[in-house]
Amino acid sequence: MQSFPMQSFLGRAGEQISSFWKDVYDTVLNPKPDARGDTRIAEEARARAPVIWLLGMVGSGKSSIVRTLTGSSDAEVGTGYRPCTATARIYEFPEEAPVVRFLDTRGLGEVAYDPAEDLALCEKQAHLVLVVVRAMGPVPAPVLDALTRVRRRHPDWPVVVAQTTLHDYYGGPGAPAHPLPYPFGDGTRPGGIEALDRSLAAQRETFAKLPGSGAVRFAPVDFTPEEDGLPPADYGVDRLWAALEAGSADGVVSMMRHSLQNSGRPGAGRAASHIWGYAAAAGAIDMLPVAGVIGVPVVQGKMLHSLAGMLGVTWTRATLAEFSGCLGAGVLLRFGAQFGVRQLVKLVPGYGTVIGGAAAGAASFATTYGLGHAAILYLSSRRSGARFDADAVAEEFRRAMAEATGVAKASRMFSRDTDGKSGS
Amino acid sequence: MKRIVGRQGSWWLGALAAACLPFLALVPLGAVWLWERQGFVYWFLGTALCFLAAGLLFRRAHRSGDRVPPGQGATAAGEETPPDPGWSPSDKVAWQKVQGFAAQTTGRLLIDQRALLATGRAVIEEVARHYHPERAEPLWHFTLPEALLLAERISRRTRALTVQAVPGSRSVRIGDVLRLYRVKRTVASVAHSADGPWRAIRLAINPAQAVAAELSRRFQGFAVDGLSSLMLDRIARIVVEEIGREAINLYSGRLRADIDELDRLEPPAVAEPAAPAVPLRLLVAGKVNAGKSSLVNALCGDVVAAVDVLAATGQPTSHSVRGADDRPALELVDCAGLERETAIAKLVALAENCDLVLWVAPANDGARDLDRRLLDAVRGHFAGRPQFRAPPVVVVMSHIDRLRPFNEWAPPYDVAAPTGRKAETIRAAMESVAQSLGVPTADVVPARLDAGMLYNIDAVWTAVLARVPEARQSQLIRLLRLAGSAGGVAGVARQIVTGGRLLSGLVIEGIAGPRTRI
Prior knowledge:
The complex is a heterodimer.
Chain A: H1 3-29, H2 35-48, E1 51-56, H3 62-70, H4 74-79, E2 81-83, E3 88-93, E4 100-105, H5 115-122, E5 126-134, H6 141-153, E6 159-164, H7 194-208, E7 216-220, E8 222-223, E9 234-235, H8 237-247, H9 252-260, H10 268-287, H11 296-311, H12 317-326, H13 329-347, H14 351-384, H15 390-411, H16 419-422
Parallel strand pairs in A: 1-4, 1-5, 5-6, 6-7
Antiparallel strand pairs in A: 2-3, 3-4, 8-9
Helix pairs in contact in A: 1-11, 1-13, 2-10, 9-10, 10-11, 10-14, 11-14, 13-14, 14-15
Chain B: H1 2-5, H2 9-37, H3 40-67, H4 89-103, H5 108-111, H6 113-131, H7 144-165, H8 174-183, H9 188-193, H10 195-205, H11 207-224, H12 229-251, H13 259-263, E1 280-286, H14 292-300, E2 317-321, E3 330-334, H15 344-352, E4 356-362, H16 369-383, E5 393-398, H17 421-437, E6 444-446, H18 457-466, H19 468-486, H20 489-498, H21 501-517
Parallel strand pairs in B: 1-3, 1-4, 4-5, 5-6
Antiparallel strand pairs in B: 2-3
Helix pairs in contact in B: 4-6, 4-12, 6-11, 6-12, 7-10, 7-11, 10-11, 10-21, 11-12, 15-16
């Protein structure tokens, strides 16, 4: 008696898995132009992507920061923006399924510009405020005014201050050079150039007077193009990442960092930067009681197709079967059973839609993320012709899935109580 | 006829007639001769042809004379004399109104003294109303010192004009002139008791009448000497313009200080007046940390202002720069760092009291919105006050060493024809600064202001010196404004009381006289 529902569940789970893989196969092998699906994926990813609010004057180095953090070239950042309001714009990266969004409040402090408008529109998505100021001289009044207003409304919001264009202080007859190793530590230690240290300290004092309780972290940085001859070109980027990660306690930024690192490089690095967005979209789509235009398998299929494109490989029925096979029958079955149960629970009215939906979202997020990383490993070895290691692929799948599950739980990004936050 | 040649002239006329009679007699004799020789028809045809040719030639001469008034090519269409270069926009509007009167003037005006007087009064009243629209009696809105100075100016001009334009005027005795005035006097009792002073006062009190009297008398002579009507028209316009010019000088308050005195501080034999009494005041303005204090130090050639990475100055400070051989004495006002738009009021107040603005804009800072808004606020302030004159603006683009490539600093850089990358960047930054601040690129001077690493300060000096004449005009208007605010109605009243009964009586008589008796 007792085994009957279990058997039934397993049976139905098996059906689910086979239909799941069938959908994935179909999407990967017979990609159809699907503008609505692509839009949907981009929208869902966008809704989940952490928003870093860049606050600073024109020419303070905001675009350099966007470029360096995303590892993206000018063009990619340039095409990936959309206007938010008349004055603010949002840089999304990557465009098709954004991992991160940079809210750039350009022209801050202009006569006709009221930052309150941007606040109202974007405050629900902003993970943290990244203030960009030139290290030289006092903090510009418009920046300070806007930040003070932000912190009055959100006293707990963390603030990261990027202090840019350090090289203005190196002036002299000799060639300027960054002090190495990076001397500023957590952004509060002196760097050894007297005028610069005093200016940085004065800026820290100014920010200490901000209202609110959220931590304020500092990162003296100098991001310059290679041809400027100021190596390293991303001076202080690790410190900036550390400050951003510390500012976002739930680990989302940390994971985003892994997704973004090396995204400027061709091949695996760039491909990896796309996984987060697809995973976030899959998770978000799965949270809905009834999937709308597209389902999770379609998202995953599109992701696999896109990753192969970036790596310069084409999926065939054989390689796809090999890939799904090397994930390991046990792994796949366990995951599939879990997946199936979640899906079934999701269909239970009331209770299921609330709890199950949330769990299903996290599960879909984690599996998509794992699948993507496993696929990159598999496709990379296929492309290079190296010996194919099925266990390594399975291990990468498990590792990435566990990582994503942890982040999803910690950030509660797929739980219902945060759903209202992302309902843009 | 009698009016033109005078009483004694009838004897002259008789003599002239007697002398001409033999020649006049030739006319009927010639006609008889033609009649007898049957050549009268040919003579008639020849005469007709000559008249035709004369008519054509006259039309031609009239047209070309109309089109190109000799020696007036530079002035605006319809103007006989150019407006003064130092006038403010408000003065130029008044000049336009004067031009309106001048355009309607004909040569008849010079012969008809009544018409000249009426036109002169109308011009002066129009100018007075332009400057003091709020007054019920704008005509009398000037101070006694102004009036006396006006009298002096008119006297001087009249003398110059007389010597130049009236042959033999040097031999005319003053007694004759005074006798003429006595004949035409309007305030008989005053004229009897104090003829000389009265002339001066009358010139001051009613410039229109005085000028009209002088000019009308003179040009009557010209008229009978056979000037063409075209010439008369032009002279009439000049007369109206001169009346308007002096009225503008009077009512704009420009006569509160003696402009010519400033000009003649040094005798003309010495080259240029090197150091006028009041040093030019330069406002050094710009955002926080733009390099204002560094510029002040560079221009002073000494460390007088504190320079630091942190905003050092909170209040405006003033520094004197002594004049050198080729440089005027300056007063540099180091404006406190302008951080936000709330500084507009302070900046405008400072700009109103300065003669030239040195705007310091860092080359490497693209955030120039605040600069532009502050500058526009200053421009708007002066645009809304045409009686003021906006100080010229020179932009000093600082920190050019911090432009790309960062590790290069090998001056000099030729920004006019940039060759290297650094020079190109500097040029591009200059254009960007010029565009964002709304100034011509020529007014942007790139410079490095760090102590010990100064570069292109000479160019800053050159730019300042090029603007000195313009700045002097701003200074003059600023000083006049100060002189005006120091006096006022009460002050004038006090001066009249202490100046004695006679003078005040003259003033009152002079004011009342022309209005009631003419």
